[in-house]
Write a structure and sequence with these properties.
Blueprint: E1 13-19, H1 38-42, E2 54-58, E3 64-69, E4 75-79, E5 84-88, E6 94-98, E7 104-109, E8 115-119, E9 124-128, E10 135-140, E11 156-157, E12 166-171, E13 176-180, E14 187-191, E15 197-202, E16 208-212, E17 216-220, E18 224-229, E19 233-238, E20 244-248, E21 253-257, E22 263-268, E23 273-278, E24 284-288, E25 293-297, E26 307-312, E27 315-319, E28 341-347, E29 378-381, E30 384-387, E31 393-396, H2 399-402, H3 407-417, E32 422-432, E33 439-445, E34 448-449, E35 461-467, H4 477-490, H5 504-513, H6 520-523, H7 539-548, E36 558-566, H8 569-575, E37 580-587, H9 590-607, E38 610-611, E39 614-618, E40 620-621, H10 625-660, E41 664-671, E42 673-680, E43 683-690, E44 692-694, E45 714-716, E46 724-729, E47 739-741, H11 750-756, H12 759-768, E48 772-773, H13 790-799, E49 803-816
Parallel strand pairs: 31-32, 48-49
Antiparallel strand pairs: 1-28, 2-25, 3-4, 4-5, 5-6, 7-8, 8-9, 9-10, 11-12, 12-13, 13-14, 15-16, 16-17, 17-18, 19-20, 20-21, 21-22, 23-24, 24-25, 26-27, 29-30, 30-31, 32-33, 33-43, 34-40, 35-37, 35-41, 36-37, 36-49, 38-39, 42-43, 44-47, 45-46, 46-49
Helix pairs in contact: 4-10, 5-10, 7-9, 9-10
C-alpha cells in the first residue's frame, strides 16, 4: 500500500461519450434518449450493482466533530473528546496530526498549507504547521457573554470585493462574525446580531452563509438576511452547483437548499451530525458524534467497479449502473440532455480534494480519449498494460491516466516499435504525442540509435538544491518576490542569451569534460559526470551553445522555489533532503542540443534512414560512422546540459546566501532526454529515454557506490502550481526498463491550451495557492490545466511498483522564461 502522506490526493477525471440510455434500466433520466440496443445491454453483466446510500468510513471514534478537506485530498477531522485533529488518508486509515487540544471544533486549511482549528475550550484559533505539525496560537477571542468558546471557523476569502482576503470566523460566544487577516493579527467585524454563529461558508459570488444555533441560517451580502429557519443549524457548506447543505442537531438531519433558499431534499436519521464537508465531486461527508462515526454519501456519479465497453467508434456503455445514491432524490441530468448521446464528466467519489480545487477546469483534449488501441490492451499487472504485437508496447498507467492517452500516442509507439533493431517499447503515465516518438517513452535496442527518442532538447533534465531555509522564512510574499527579482538579475530566461558568457576555452572544455572539474561531493550527485566526446559539432551548434550556457530557456523550463515535505526520513537523510526550502531547476542543452538533433535529422533523411510512416523517426546503426558521430555530438550536448544546470544552481545558491545567509547543497542532477548504454538482464542495450527518467533501484550493477544501498534520487516535477516529487526506484522498475515518468505530461497541446483556457482562471488558480510567478500572467500553455494530474501519474508509478515518493515539493515561487 502506498503511503497516503507521500502521494498527493488521487484524482480521476474521465470524459466519456456514452449511450444516453446507460446500462440495464437506463437510470440516467429523465432525459429523452434512444432505446438501448441489444449489444449495449449485453455489455452489462447480469446483476451488476453499485454502492448506494450512506457508507461508514471511520468508526469507534470518541467524538468526531467538524470536517474539512486539505489540499492533498485528505479528510481532516477534529475529535472533541480526544482533543485531536486527524487526517483520513486515501487508504481509509486515520493518522493524527495534532493533539492536546481543548475541544477542537472548526477546521480550515489555508492556501499556504496551514491548518486553522477553533479550540473551543480556550476560546481561540490555533494554527497547525503543515510540516512540523506544531501548534501555535493564531488568534484569541474575548468571551464577554460567558458562553462556551468559539465553535467554528470558515473558509479563506480569496478575491471577494466585500472582503478582499482573510478568514471568516464566527464568534460564537458574542454573536458576531469576523473577517480575520491571514496572519491572525487584524479582525474586521462583518456580521452581528446572531444568537450563536458556529459555521460559515461562501459561494462563488462572495455571499457568506452563517449557521446560527439559534435556529437560522443567515447570509451576509453584506447585510445580514435570514436564508432559512432550521432546528439548531451547526454547519454549512456550498456545493459545486451553488446548492447549500446544512447539518442540524435539532432534527439530526442534513438539509439541501438551492441558492434561493428552497429546500431540495433532506437526509435524516443521523446521530448528532456535528460536521459536514464536500469533496470536489460534491460527495457528502458527515460526522456522527453520537456513535463515533464518519460517513459518506456518494451524491454524484457512481462508477464502481469501472467497466467500460466500446460499442462502436466513440460510443461506450458504462457498467454497472450510473445513478444517484439513496438519501437524496433529485435525479441525475445529462450535460447535453437533448442529444442522442451526451458527454458526462465522471468524478471518482472522494478523491478530488477540497472545494477550491474545482477551479481547475478541463478543456478540450488533444484528441479523442478512448482510442481504438484500448480494445487490444491486456492487463498484466497493477497499473501495467500491454499492447500485443511483434514488439509489445508496455504501458504503465492507472485507469484515470490510461484515458488521457490518445490514438496519436499509440500510433507513434507502434511506428517506433517497427524500426529495425527495436526490442522493447515502454510508455510512461505522462506519455503524450511528440515529434516522431511519444514523449514519455523508453525504447531498448541492441545496435540501433533513434535520435527522436532522445528528442530535440538533448539531456533536458532536473537538478535539485536543498537549502537551510525554513518555509516560514519565505511565508511573506514580498520576501519571495525579492528572491524572484534577485534570481532574474543573475539568470537569463526565455530565449535570452546567458548574462555571463563562458569563455571559448571553457566552453570547449565543457563540451569534452562535462562536470569532471567539479568537486567529488558534487560529482557523486550527478547521474552522469560526463560523456566521452571529441565535440564533433557543426559551427552553428557551437555558436548556439556558447551563447546559452548558463540560461534557463522557455517553454516548460523553470526555476522553482519549493516547500519540501519529507515522507521517508531515513532515505531523505541519505539523499540530503530535509523539510524546509529547496530549489528545483528544469532545463537542458538549449540551442546546442536542438541544433545537433536538427543536423542529424537532415543528414539521415537525406540518406533514407527513416521509418516510412514518419519522416522524423530516423535511425542508424550505433556502430556506423554516422552513429558514432551522433553519439559524440549527443555526448557533447549532454555535457553542456549538466554544467548548465550546475551553473544555474550556483547562481540561485548565491542569491539565497546573500539574502538570508543560507547554506545549500546539490541533492542530485538527472536527465530525462538521453540515449545511454545500460545492461538489461546482463546484456548491453541502448536505452533511449524521451521524457522518461532513469530509475536504478538499490543493488543495480550500474549504480555508483554512493547509491548502491538505497538507489539514487529521482527528481520529477509536477505541472506549474502542483507538487513535484523526489522518488526512489523499487525493484519492480525492471518491468519499465528501469525508468519512470519525467513529469506530469501534457493533456492539452500548446495551441489548444492557448485557445481553450481562460487567462483569469489560470492566474487565479496560482494566486489562490499563494504561488508567485515572475511573469505578469501565467502562460496558458504551461498552466496546470494543460497537464495531466501529477497525483494520478505518481499513483500510476507507485501502484506498478516502479518507484516510491521520498519527499514532495510544493511550489512557492515560479520563475519562467516567456
Amino acid at each position: 500500500m502506498v503511503d497516503p502522506h507521500s502521494i498527493v490526493v488521487k484524482r480521476a477525471l474521465v470524459l466519456l461519450t456514452i449511450v444516453a440510455a446507460g446500462c440495464q434500466q437506463g437510470l440516467i433520466s429523465p432525459s429523452p434518449r434512444p432505446s438501448p440496443t441489444p449489444s449495449a445491454l449485453s455489455a452489462c453483466p447480469a446483476g451488476a450493482t453499485a454502492p448506494a446510500g450512506p457508507q461508514v468510513l471511520l468508526s469507534n471514534l470518541p467524538a468526531p466533530d467538524d470536517l474539512a478537506f486539505d489540499r492533498d485530498g485528505r479528510l481532516l477531522f477534529g475529535d472533541i473528546n480526544a482533543g485531536t485533529v486527524s487526517a483520513m488518508g486515501i487508504d481509509g486509515s486515520a493518522q493524527p496530526i495534532a493533539g492536546g487540544l481543548s475541544v477542537p471544533e472548526g477546521i480550515v486549511e489555508l492556501a499556504n498549507g496551514e491548518i486553522l482549528v477553533a479550540e473551543q475550550g480556550r476560546n481561540r484559533i490555533v494554527a497547525i504547521d503543515p510540516v512540523s505539525h506544531g501548534v501555535s496560537q493564531w488568534r484569541a477571542f474575548a468571551n464577554r457573554m460567558g458562553q462556551e468558546g468559539i465553535d467554528g471557523i470558515g473558509p479563506e476569502l480569496l478575491s471577494i470585493a466585500a472582503a478582499p482576503g482573510g478568514v471568516i470566523v464566527p464568534d460564537s460566544p458574542n454573536g458576531l462574525v469576523w473577517r480575520v487577516s491571514l496572519d491572525g493579527k487584524t479582525a474586521t467585524q462583518i456580521g452581528s446580531g446572531m444568537t450563536r454563529p458556529v459555521g460559515s461558508a461562501v459561494d462563488q459570488n462572495g455571499r457568506i452563509f452563517v449557521a446560527d444555533e439559534g435556529g437560522s441560517v443567515w447570509t451576509l451580502d453584506p447585510a445580514r438576511r435570514r436564508f432559512a429557519t432550521l432546528p439548531t443549524p451547526d454547519d454549512v457548506v456550498v456545493g459545486r452547483a451553488g446548492q447549500i447543505f446544512v447539518n442540524t442537531l435539532g432534527d439530526n438531519a442534513i438539509h439541501e437548499f438551492d441558492a434561493q433558499g428552497h429546500q431540495l431534499s433532506m437526509m435524516s436519521g443521523i446521530n448528532q451530525p456535528q460536521g459536514i464537508a464536500l469533496d470536489g465531486a460534491d460527495n457528502l461527508y458527515y460526522s456522527e458524534s453520537g456513535n463515533g462515526q464518519i460517513g459518506r454519501v456518494v451524491r454524484s456519479f457512481i462508477l464502481d467497479p469501472p467497466k467500460v465497453t466500446r460499442i462502436s467508434r466513440g460510443i461506450f456503455v458504462i457498467c454497472p449502473e450510473i445513478r444517484r445514491a439513496a438519501g437524496f432524490s433529485k435525479p441525475l441530468k445529462l450535460l447535453a440532455p437533448n442529444a442522442p448521446t451526451a458527454t458526462l464528466q465522471l468524478l471518482q467519489p472522494g478523491t478530488l480534494g477540497h472545494h477550491q480545487r474545482r477551479r481547475r477546469r478541463s478543456a478540450k483534449p488533444i484528441a479523442g480519449r478512448d482510442p481504438a488501441m484500448m480494445q487490444t490492451l491486456q492487463q498484466v499487472g497493477t497499473n501495467h498494460y500491454r499492447v500485443p504485437g511483434d514488439i509489445p508496447i508496455d504501458v504503465f498507467a492507472n485507469e484515470a491516466i490510461l484515458r488521457t492517452f490518445d490514438d496519436a500516442v499509440f500510433q507513434q509507439a507502434r511506428n517506433t516499435a517497427a524500426i529495425p533493431g527495436v526490442e522493447s517499447v515502454v510508455l510512461m503515465p505522462d506519455a503524450h504525442s511528440g515529434y516522431g516518438a511519444p514523449i514519455g517513452a523508453v525504447v531498448a535496442t541492441r545496435n540501433t540509435l533513434i535520435p527522436m527518442v532522445a528528442g530535440y532538447d538533448i539531456s533536458c533534465g532536473m537538478s535539485f538544491l536543498q537549502s537551510s531555509l525554513q518555509v516560514e522564512q519565505l511565508a511573506d510574499w514580498r520576501i519571495r518576490r525579492s528572491v524572484i527579482q534577485a534570481i532574474e538579475q543573475r539568470v537569463a530566461l526565455g530565449r535570452d542569451k546567458a548574462l555571463t558568457r563562458v569563455t571559448k576555452d571553457r566552453f570547449e572544455r565543457i563540451l569534452r569534460e562535462g562536470a569532471q572539474g567539479y568537486p567529488a561531493e558534487i560529482r557523486d550527485r550527478l547521474e552522469r559526470v560526463k560523456f566521452d566526446s571529441e565535440a564533433q559539432l557543426s559551427a552553428r551548434a557551437r555558436q548556439r551553445g556558447i551563447e546559452t550556457v548558463g540560461s534557463v530557456g522557455s517553454g516548460n523550463h523553470f526555476i522553482e522555489v519549493q516547500a519540501v515535505t519529507v515522507h521517508r526520513p531515513e532515505l531523505a537523510e541519505t539523499f540530503g533532503v530535509r523539510n524546509g526550502v529547496g530549489v528545483m531547476i528544469h532545463t537542458g542543452s538549449r540551442g546546442l542540443g536542438h541544433q545537433v538533433a536538427s543536423d542529424f535529422l537532415q543528414e539521415l533523411q537525406s540518406q533514407g534512414w527513416q521509418q516510412p510512416a514518419d519522416r522524423e523517426l530516423v535511425f542508424m546503426p550505433a556502430d556506423s560512422d554516422v552513429g558514432r558521430r551522433y553519439l559524440d555530438a549527443m555526448g557533447a550536448a549532454a555535457n553542456i546540459a549538466i554544467v548548465n544546470r550546475l551553473l544555474l544552481l550556483a547562481q540561485v545558491a548565491e542569491v539565497l546566501e546573500e539574502q538570508f545567509g543560507a547554506t545549500t547543497h546539490v541533492v542530485y542532477d538527472i536527465s530525462h532526454n538521453l540515449i545511454q548504454q545500460e545492461d538489461v538482464d546482463g546484456e548491453p542495450h541502448w536505452i533511449h529515454r524521451k521524457g522518461a527518467t532513469r530509475a536504478f533501484p538499490a543493488g543495480h550493477p550500474g549504480q555508483p557506490s554512493r547509491w548502491q544501498a538505497t538507489g539514487h534520487p529521482i527528481i520529477t516535477p509536477g505541472s506549474m502550481g502542483t507538487s513535484s516529487h523526489i522518488q526512489v526506484a523499487q525493484s519492480g522498475a525492471r518491468a519499465s526498463l528501469y525508468s519512470i515518468n519525467h513529469g506530469a505530461g501534457r493533456v492539452l497541446s500548446r495551441r489548444a491550451a492557448n485557445r481553450g483556457l481562460k487567462q483569469a482562471d489560470a492566474d487565479r488558480w496560482l494566486a489562490e495557492r499563494d504561488i508567485l510567478v515572475n511573469t505578469r500572467h501565467v502562460p496558458l500553455d504551461e498552466s496546470a490545466a494543460a497537464y495531466k494530474d501529477i497525483d494520478q501519474v505518481i499513483d500510476s508509478i507507485a501502484g506498478a511498483g516502479l518507484a516510491s515518493v521520498v519527499a514532495s515539493c510544493r511550489p512557492m515561487a515560479v520563475i519562467k522564461g516567456s
